[in-house]
Amino acid sequence: MTSNIIEFSKAKVRRLTSSDKRTDPRLDTDDRLFAQIVQAGNRADLAGVILSCVAVNMSAGGIQFRSNESIPVGAELDLWVDVSNRPGKFFLAGEVRWSRPTNEKDVNGLPLYFIGVQLKAGAATDFTDWRTFQSSA
Q1: Please, are residues 91 and 124 in contact by the beta-carbon 8 Å criterion?
Q2: Rounded CA separation 97/107 (Å)
């Protein structure tokens, strides 16, 4: 029987280029995450919404994920990231830095979006553990 679990240590790492604004190398992934929209500026209807999403890549300072909801730039999120080869979830907080359509649709025919989140340190988050975990990948 074959496993669909990808070893974190064997995942593809995307190196930074001179035109890249990222501060940390990205690790390509397809791990599950949940995003709760804490606030979304003039989109008050999104506050409190929880989305089931799939991470595209992650680093010590940010996460890109795929969602069936467009989330506005500046929105504050709480994230629960379930890394496949680690027990438990990371609880993180961040701000949406960019959002764009993927030009794909989900199984229900709804458009999908890529969302880029910059992670923030917080007293009640796993930010320090996340950075340690990412640096050892």
Answers
A1: yes
A2: 27
